[in-house]
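Researcher: Sequence recovery benchmark, item below. Answer with residues only.
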């Protein structure tokens, strides 16, 4: 045990990570904890991060936030998946659509039926069977629990939102639950001479703030976890080569598309994220292959509206902190590591770290065993997401630039190679414990980028080719007819906004 009871929590940082942490701790533990959050207006927040994945809905539910209020306050739109353009070969595109694809069969994934159909030269696109994809391409959205007639799972969705507005919203939420906000810059810390644990932080104005547990939400700099505890960082840039981003918002254009776009360019890729009031855009690239100037030009050449500000360069190193929890410091957000924004996983990692901390909260003092278990779970979670993101780079088939050729030829982690080999030989994919992405997510990236299995499960041979064709045709038709009836996404957002009282 490092110290006695944990009554005083100090959060350093007031970006998305800081205020999400403050909100859930305050909601869960109420007056049993004293929570102080320190943020520096001079330093500010990173100010990017607009695309999320479906579990954020559970976080908001846990806080009791009404979805319509959330949509209004954060200028959110709906996200049904991510469309990847030019990631296989130039001109190709596919979607990592959320939710299910097709009809599930006991002990055998739907994808095996699709592979059998492909081998029999039956012409079906894998995404014919995705209600999310079909709705996304029609710019349609409404909550839908089930696809009627076939009783298939309905639409799974997430949000595009303004993370800065979300942090402001959560600040109000937290302050209403007695979180104390202190504005100021942390310039030093005092540590216990025997344990090395942090006892207090010192602000520029001389104020000293003591705590039993510190949550480092200070962003990429990792102020407590790295600068003061020297925890160490595992560098993954040999697998995830991007080290720079250049971001700019532009004016919105119609229609309001309910999906993120990820468009691969010569030496990186560009995001397009539509919000209610603007569209977020950015280039992610490797400075070894592309200059900032070239990245900026590519970005500006590919905007679909007028830029609203000067593009801004951000540097990062992909990887993870060797320990997310070290002594009495837990790092959450960019201070704990960064995997690049390709699959919008950063805010999700914030959420899962907070939930993990809440579940393992060290009320009676910090135990090495609990710290170790927390770190084991975080490491596994980071590594599984890392593999999924590397897959996109590895599976490209582009020959038009050195960047993409080098990505094709790189050695990938054994865990990923194994997953790719198993899928190629058998069409099988397994979701391991603590793994974020579903089997269907993996299948979509494999198939979307051209890794088609050589074999399929023999359960699919229970159907003759004609029976298979009839089955797939009927599922495809039901999904298309259902998607045709779903209202327009922009109208859905307006309906949400007008359902709220005006003041
Ligand atoms: P920050 O926003 O940097 O906040 C750090 C806080 O610490 C600030 O309040 C700052 O004032 C404070 N601070 C720092 N030093 C001190 C000090 N000495 N004293 C007092 N206060 C201090 N995530 C997604 O989920 N989806 C996306 O689409 C996405 N896109 C991204 C694109 C790019 C290019 C990048 C780089 C990241 C992206 N992310 C995305 C990640 C996302 O931006 C972050 O996960 C999120 O913003 C959380 O940041 P943070 O709170 O950890 O850090």
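Model:
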């Amino acid at each position: 045990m490092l110290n006695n009871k944990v009554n005083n929590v100090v959060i350093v940082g007031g970006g998305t990570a800081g205020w999400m942490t403050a909100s859930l701790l305050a909601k869960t533990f109420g007056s049993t904890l004293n929570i102080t959050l320190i943020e520096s207006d001079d330093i500010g927040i990173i100010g990017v991060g607009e695309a999320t994945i479906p579990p954020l809905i559970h976080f908001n539910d846990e806080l009791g936030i009404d979805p319509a209020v959330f949509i209004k306050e954060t200028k959110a739109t709906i996200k049904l998946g991510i469309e990847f353009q030019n990631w296989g070969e130039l001109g190709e595109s596919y979607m990592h659509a959320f939710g299910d694809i097709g009809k599930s069969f006991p002990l055998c994934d739907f994808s095996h039926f699709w592979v059998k159909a492909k081998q029999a030269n039956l012409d079906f696109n894998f995404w014919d069977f995705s209600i999310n994809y079909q709705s996304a391409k029609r710019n349609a959205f409404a909550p839908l629990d089930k696809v009627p007639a076939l009783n298939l799972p309905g639409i799974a969705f997430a949000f595009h939102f303004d993370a800065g507005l979300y942090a402001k919203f959560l600040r109000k939420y937290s302050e209403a639950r007695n979180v104390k906000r202190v504005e100021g810059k942390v310039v030093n810390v005092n540590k216990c001479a025997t344990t090395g644990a942090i006892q207090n932080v010192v602000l520029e104005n001389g104020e000293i703030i003591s705590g039993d547990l510190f949550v480092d939400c200070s962003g990429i700099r990792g102020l407590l976890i790295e600068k003061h505890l020297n925890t160490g960082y595992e560098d993954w840039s040999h697998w995830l080569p991007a080290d720079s981003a250049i971001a700019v918002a532009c004016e919105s254009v119609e229609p309001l598309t309910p999906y993120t776009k990820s468009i691969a360019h010569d030496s990186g890729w560009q995001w397009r994220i539509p919000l209610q009031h603007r569209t977020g855009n950015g280039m992610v690239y490797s400075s070894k292959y592309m200059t900032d100037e070239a990245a900026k030009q590519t970005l500006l050449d590919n905007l679909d509206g007028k830029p609203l500000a000067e593009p801004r360069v951000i540097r990062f190193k992909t990887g993870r902190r060797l320990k997310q929890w070290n002594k009495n410091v837990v790092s959450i957000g960019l201070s704990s590591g960064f995997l690049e924004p390709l699959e919008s996983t950063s805010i999700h990692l914030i959420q899962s770290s907070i939930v993990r901390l809440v579940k393992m909260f060290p009320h009676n003092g910090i135990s090495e065993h609990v710290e170790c278990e927390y770190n084991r779970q975080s490491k596994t979670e980071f590594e599984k997401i890392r593999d999924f993101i590397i897959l996109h780079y590895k599976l490209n088939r582009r020959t038009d630039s050195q960047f993409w050729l080098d990505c094709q030829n790189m050695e990938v982690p054994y865990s990923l190679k194994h997953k790719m080999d198993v899928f190629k030989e058998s069409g099988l994919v397994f979701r391991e414990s603590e793994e974020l992405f579903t089997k269907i997510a993996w299948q979509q990236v494999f198939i979307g980028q051209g890794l088609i299995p050589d074999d399929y499960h023999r359960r699919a041979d229970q159907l003759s080719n004609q029976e298979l064709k009839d089955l797939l045709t009927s599922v495809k038709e039901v999904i298309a007819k259902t998607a045709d009836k779903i209202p327009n996404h922009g109208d859905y957002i307006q309906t949400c906004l007008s359902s709220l009282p005006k003041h």
